[in-house]
Amino acid sequence: MVNPEIQGKRYPRTPAYQVGREKVREFARAVFSSKESFDLDYALSLGHKDLVVPPTFPVVIQEQSLKLVLEDPESQIDFSRVVHGDQRFKFERPIVAGDVLTSELNVASVKSLGGNHMVSFETEIFDEGNQLVCTAFSTLVVRGA
Amino acid sequence: MPNFSELSVGDVVASKTFDLTRDSLVRYAGASGDFNPIHYRDDIAQSVGLPGVLAHGMLTMGLAVQPLIDWVQDSARVLDYGVRFTKPVVVPASGVATLTVTATIAQLDEESNKARVDLTCSFEENNVLGKAQVWVQL
User: Fold this and answer.
1) Partner residue opposite B65 with nearest CB, options A26, A29, A55
2) What is the pLDDT of residues B88-124, one digit of tens each?
3) Sequence-separated (6 or more) residues with CB below 8 Å from residue B47
4) CA A11 → CA A117, A132, B34, B72, distances in Å?
5) CB-CB under 8 Å, B76 with A94
6) d(CA B20, nearest CA chain A) in Å
7) Do B62 and A37 touch (CB under 8 A)?
8) Of A108, A105, A129, A96, whose CA–CA distance to A19 is shortest?
9) Contact assessment for residue B34 and residue B102, using Cβ atoms and an 8 Å cutoff
10) For B18-76, how does the pLDDT look when each residue is reduced to its tens digit (9 = 90+)?
């Protein structure tokens, strides 16, 4: 069950999240990265300011925005019935350790399909200078009872 | 660094197998902050009608792009990456779930030196990611 009225709803900006260098290494190990996200000298030699995050790292920021939706009584989403349908990240620039990021989510669509509900979100991720660095697109499938 | 002019659509540029264990799932839960117990508790996974403890979809998505990153040698070259989650990956309490990833050139944009690379990620002969497409700057 999802309240179709949340389509188009915009959720508030999340608190600042500082991308820590050791967090990048921890995440990189968990997704079986090779040296790009561990080796600082290597990252610097490529001209980056610090370690570059793996491409799926922005899910950590997206999660902060999604939490607002799941906690919103108006959304009526039963988390125990939620399955991840799809995910996409579109980068404006690479995210590096040291970045301070915030995000803002809007509910792009709510659809019903064969007893299930599909909710699609667009989460914009901004840096400290309020420049867009990444847009995360995510669809959750809420299985019908 | 791959040489753009030597690439053709259909080239397989990277492939690798990954053995997932329960340890892999616990490690990913900690690193990502996704502590949904269906990713480490058999009893809870069964109680919600799942065939067993599942790998996080985002873990599968995260590792599937790594062979491609090894090829381009810089994760900053990934401009856009999207997938659909089509099948669950069941990870046994002991033993491994083996995923096989292949990255194939699907489109080349000569003006901007960008390539679309399509990924397959198979588990027990099923492709667990649908429409897994990555745009990379070469």
Assistant:
1) A55
2) 999 999 999 999 999 999 999 999 999 999 999 999 9
3) none
4) 20, 17, 21, 36
5) yes
6) 10
7) no
8) A96
9) no
10) 999 999 999 999 999 999 999 999 999 999 888 999 999 999 999 999 999 999 999 99
